[in-house]
Design brief:
Blueprint (H helix, E strand, L loop, with lengths): L1 E2 L4 H7 L2 H10 L6 E6 L2 E6 L2 H18 L5 E2 L4 E3 L4 E3 L3 E4 L16 E7 L5 H5 L1 H8 L4 E6 L4 E9 L2 E9 L4 E2 L8 E2 L8
Parallel strand pairs: 8-9
Antiparallel strand pairs: 1-3, 2-3, 4-7, 5-6, 7-8, 9-10, 10-11, 12-13
């Protein structure tokens, strides 16, 4: 679902994501919905069981590799380059020495890995403006998990606003991140389908 705020143009000109998020906090957002701002547009999507089960498996794999105290988040706001991009990635892993900024937020410069599990309503964002913003931010590994098609897209080697390497794997094939920051292989064997 996309929400167009009546004075979105005014907000976009001010360049203040904080103001826009403050307004959203004053609105009634249904429980179980994730809210993001993508290129100045507010997007809300319900979290489905398949979505959460996939996220949980990815987080668990990262915690198994890096420990329970590893800087890993889910659905936490991170501001990315571009015009009004306040994303809440399904999974984000930060550098071990990452520190929050003066506002208590994680910095996009410290992100090492992002995974997004698509939903029908937000898939265009994950494959489009979010992919561009993640590449522009220099996120080394971006994984899109598609429970509808039963496949994963693994993007690496960011350059400009795109990734130079794009590998598509079917569920059941491991995501081999050895040689990257993670030095891990992420199993997709148990990823649920929708």
């Amino acid at each position: 679902m996309t929400i167009e705020l009546t004075d979105r143009t005014e907000m976009a000109e001010s360049g203040e994501l904080d103001d826009l998020f403050e307004r959203l906090e004053q609105m009634h957002i249904p429980e179980g919905y994730k809210v993001e701002i993508v290129e100045g547009n507010v997007h809300m999507a319900p979290q489905r069981d398949v979505h959460w089960q996939t996220i949980r498996r990815i987080v668990r794999a990262l915690e198994d590799r890096f420990g329970i105290d590893a800087p890993v988040t889910s659905d936490v706001r991170i501001d990315f380059p571009g015009k009004l991009n306040g994303f809440a990635p399904d999974v984000a892993k930060f550098a071990d020495d990452a520190e929050k900024d003066e506002l208590g937020r994680w910095r996009y410069q410290d992100v090492e890995f992002i995974a997004e599990v698509i939903s029908q309503g937000t898939a265009a964002n994950d494959y489009g403006p979010k992919k561009k913003a993640y590449a522009a931010a220099g996120v080394p590994v971006y994984v899109i998990v598609d429970p509808y098609l039963g496949c994963c897209h693994v993007f690496t080697r960011p350059q400009g606003d795109d990734y130079m390497i794009d590998v598509t794997l079917k569920y059941g094939e491991p995501i081999d991140l050895t040689g990257s920051f993670a030095d891990l292989t992420l199993s997709t064997q148990e990823f649920p389908r929708d």
